[in-house]
Amino acid sequence: MPFETTQPVIAFIGAGNMAKAIITGLINSGYPAQKIIATNRSEQKLQRLHSSLGISIAETNAQAAQKAEVIILAVKPGVVAEVCSKMADMINHQLILSLAAGITIESIQKHFKTNPSVIRAMPNTPCLISKGTIGIYGDEGVNSDQRSFVESLFENLGKTVWIDCEKQMDIVTALSGSGPAYYFYLTEALIKAGVDLGLDEDICSSLVNQTALGAVAMLNNEDNQSAKELRIAVTSPNGTTAAAIRIFDEHKLTEIIGSAIQSATNRGIEMSKQSE
Ligand SMILES: NC(=O)c1ccc[n+]([C@@H]2O[C@H](COP(=O)([O-])OP(=O)(O)OC[C@H]3O[C@@H](n4cnc5c(N)ncnc54)[C@H](OP(=O)(O)O)[C@@H]3O)[C@@H](O)[C@H]2O)c1
C-alpha cells in the first residue's frame, strides 16, 4: 500500500479547520512532516501549522501541486473551480482528494487535460477530536491502492464509510457532514427546556451532555441493540419518557426531521448543479 510504503508527498490546498485536522492526524500517526505541503490564502494559519507541526509551506497552489503526488482540496466549495483552473498545468498523474461539499468529480476533472483520479470525501467536525465520520466516494477511475491510501489518511480521524453512488454524497453531507450541528441543536433545546422549568443552566448542561455520552455509548454497545430497541426498553408505558415521546409524535417530529434532511440534501444537489 502506498501510504505505508512510499508515503507520497501530499499537498493541502487550503489550511483551514479540516486541513488542520487531517494534517494533525497524519503527523500523530508518524507521517513525515517534510512530505506534507500546505498552502493558504492568508499567511497566518500556514505559519502556525509550519511552526507547530513542522510541515512545509508553499507560496502558491501551483507550486504545491507540482511537488505532490496527492492533492487535497480543502478549500470552501465556492473557490474550488478557481483553485483547480489555476493549478491546471501542474496536474498530470496526481490523485486529487476533494473535501468540498456538493462539488462533483466531473466538475473537478473538467479543469484538467489529463483526467486525473478524483476521490470525494465528506468529513465532519468531530474529525478534529478523532471522532469523525467520513463518507468517501471514488468512481471506476480510482484504483485499490488509491482507495487504501485515502482510508489510511482518515484512519486517525474517525470512521470511514464508502458510498456506492456519487449522488448519495449529498445525503451523506446532509446526514453526517451537517449532523453534528443537529445534535448541538437538540442539546441546546434540551438545556433550554430544563432552564425554562427552573433548573440552573450549568446543571442542565452537565445533565444533558453526559446523557448524550451515555446514550451514544449504549448505541455502540456490543449487544448491537438498535436505537429503536433501546428507546422502547427505556419507555415504560404511561411513564415520564412515554409522556415526552407522545408530544414528539403529536408534533410529528420524525416527519420534521425527514423534511430537514431532505432540505439539506436538496441544498447539496443545488450546490452540485452550480458547480457544473
Ligand atoms: N468543517 C466541516 O465540518 C466540514 C465538513 C465536511 C466537509 N467540509 C469541507 O471541507 C472544506 C474545507 O472546510 P473547512 O471547514 O476546513 O473551511 P475553512 O476552515 O474555512 O478552510 C478553508 C481554507 O481555505 C483557504 N483558502 C481560500 N481560498 C484559497 C485559495 N484560493 N487558495 C488556498 N487556500 C484558500 C482559506 O484561507 P483564509 O485563511 O484566507 O480564509 C481557509 O483557511 C470545504 O470544502 C467544506 O465543504 C468541511
Describe this structure in words.
The chain has 276 residues and is of the alpha/beta class. It has 2 domains: 2-172, Rossmann fold; 179-271, ProC C-terminal domain-like fold, CATH 1.10.3730.10. Helix content is 53%, strand content 13%. The protein has 13 helices and 8 strands. The chain has helices at residues 2-5, 17-28, 43-53, 61-67, 80-87, 105-109, 144-154, 169-177, 179-196, 201-219, 227-234, 240-250, 253-275; strands at 10-13, 36-39, 56-57, 70-73, 95-98, 118-122, 132-138, 158-162. Helix 2 (17-28) links the parallel strand 1 and strand 2 (36-39). The structure holds NADP nicotinamide-adenine-dinucleotide phosphate. NADP nicotinamide-adenine-dinucleotide phosphate is lined by residues 13-19, 39-42, 45, 61, 74-77, 79, 83, 99-101, 122-125, 177.
Distinctive features:
53% helix, 13 helices, 2 domains, 13% strand, Rossmann fold, alpha/beta, ProC C-terminal domain-like fold, 8 strands, 276 residues, eight-stranded mixed β-sheet, elongated, binds NADP nicotinamide-adenine-dinucleotide phosphate
Fourth-tier CATH superfamily name of the largest domain: NAD(P)-binding Rossmann-like Domain
Number of helices: 13
Bound molecules: NADP nicotinamide-adenine-dinucleotide phosphate
Q: What general form does the structure show?
A: elongated
SSE string, helices as H and strands as E:
HEHEHEHEHEHEEHEHHHHHH
Total separate domains:
2
- The whole-number mean of residue pLDDT values reads 93
Strand segment tally: 8
In which range does the helix fraction lie? 40-55%
Percent in strands: 5-15%
Any guess at the CATH architecture of the largest domain? 3-Layer(aba) Sandwich
Which quaternary structure do these chains form?
single chain
CATH class wording of the largest domain: Alpha Beta
Provide the gyration radius in Å: 22 Å
CATH topology group of the largest domain: Rossmann fold
Q: What does the main sheet amount to?
A: 8 strands, mixed
